[in-house]
Design brief:
alpha+beta; 195 residues
């Protein structure tokens, strides 16, 4: 079973997270940030991962540490759950619409951490959530997971729609990239033999 349970406590956050890659899309999320909860619930649903998360963060400061540290823990759990990566599809890309927003997301589960994020938001906040934290979340995830991730906005004028489009596209590409190709289930998808 491809799963991981991570607990991480710092002076800024206390996070407990469990991730099952071969799930059904169930989510129990309590980050303390309503908008981030919404994004993680739809992430789990569209990736078809089972995700449980609780976080107590220093929200009296702002949402930065909570958002970044959740990205770190989710990326760490993702890498751990994948194990040796035998049989995975490895690559995926999607272009996802959400009303007027249109976002491309592409991933390579390569073992190399790289984020290319080309998404401007028309507002600084979505409710109480700072839109700049969307990038921080993905930076943290990519570093911890060891994946190459490209996210590009083609269109969008509503910050909520843009962010939701990003998370849905991210979910879809991860769900597809971790899928097992039964033809090559005992092979690592790399000429190097490791990822």
């Amino acid at each position: 079973m491809r799963n991981s349970i991570i607990e991480r406590k710092t002076n800024e956050t206390d996070i407990k997270l469990s991730l099952l890659l071969d799930g059904s899309g169930k989510a129990e999320i309590d980050s303390g940030i309503g908008f981030l909860d919404h994004m993680l619930v739809l992430f789990a649903r569209h990736a078809r991962f089972d995700l449980a998360l609780s976080c107590k963060g220093d929200l009296e400061v702002d949402g930065h540490h909570t958002t970044e540290d959740i990205g770190i823990v989710l990326g760490t759990a993702f890498a751990e759950a994948l194990g040796d990566k035998k049989g995975i599809e490895r690559y995926s890309h999607k272009i996802i619409p959400m009303d007027e927003a249109l976002v491309l997301c592409a991933v390579d589960i390569s073992g190399r951490a790289h984020l290319h994020f080309n998404c401007a938001f028309p507002t600084e906040k979505i409710g109480e959530f700072d839109t700049e934290l969307v990038r921080e979340f993905f930076e943290a995830f990519v570093r911890a997971a060891g994946v190459t991730l490209h996210i590009k906005k083609f269109d969008g004028i509503n910050s909520h729609h843009i962010a939701e489009c990003i998370f849905k596209a991210f979910a879809r590409v991860l769900g597809e990239a971790v899928r097992i190709d039964e033809r090559f289930k005992d092979e690592v998808p790399s000429t190097k033999g490791v990822l």
